[in-house]
Amino acid sequence: MGTVTNISRANFSIGDLVHHELFDYRGVVVDVDATFQSTEEWYETVARSRPPKDKPWYNVLVHGSAHSTYVAEKNLERDTSAEPIVHPVLAHYFSRFENGRYFREGRAN
């Protein structure tokens, strides 16, 4: 399907550690959308920097919080700290952390 092809252009994958450049938080990617998939109301209210809707967006578990966020690729960079993330639902998504990346057992990420 076309979605799989579009996702291949994303800079980050499920399990990657990321850093939000504007809000200075670390997190781990738990889902990838090839393009913006939330509502126009959410975009107008929350996405104040008006990142592009036609580029990848990510669901991210925020380190040191119970919060998750939906963030545009434009605002993310790779987190090179290689330090694990602390989040209460992390084990729901991943089974191991190795070489600065999270993995799900039985699946290639």
Main traits of this protein?
5-stranded antiparallel sheet; 3 helices; SH3 type barrels; single chain; two-stranded antiparallel ribbon
Describe the protein's architecture and organization.
It is a single chain. The protein is of the alpha+beta class. It has one domain (2-103): Roll (SH3 type barrels), CATH 2.30.30.390. It contains 3 helices and 7 strands, in the order αββαβββαββ. The chain has helices spanning 2-7, 40-46, 90-93; strands at 17-20, 26-33, 57-62, 68-72, 76-78, 96-98, 101-103. Strands 4-3-2-1-5 form a 5-stranded antiparallel β-sheet, with no helix packed on it. Strands 6-7 form a two-stranded antiparallel ribbon. β3 (57-62) and β4 form a beta hairpin. The chain is globular. The protein starts with a helix and ends in a 6-residue tail after the last strand.
Provide the fold topology.
Layout (H helix, E strand, L loop, with lengths): L1 H6 L9 E4 L5 E8 L6 H7 L10 E6 L5 E5 L3 E3 L11 H4 L2 E3 L2 E3 L6
Antiparallel strand pairs: 1-2, 1-5, 2-3, 3-4, 6-7
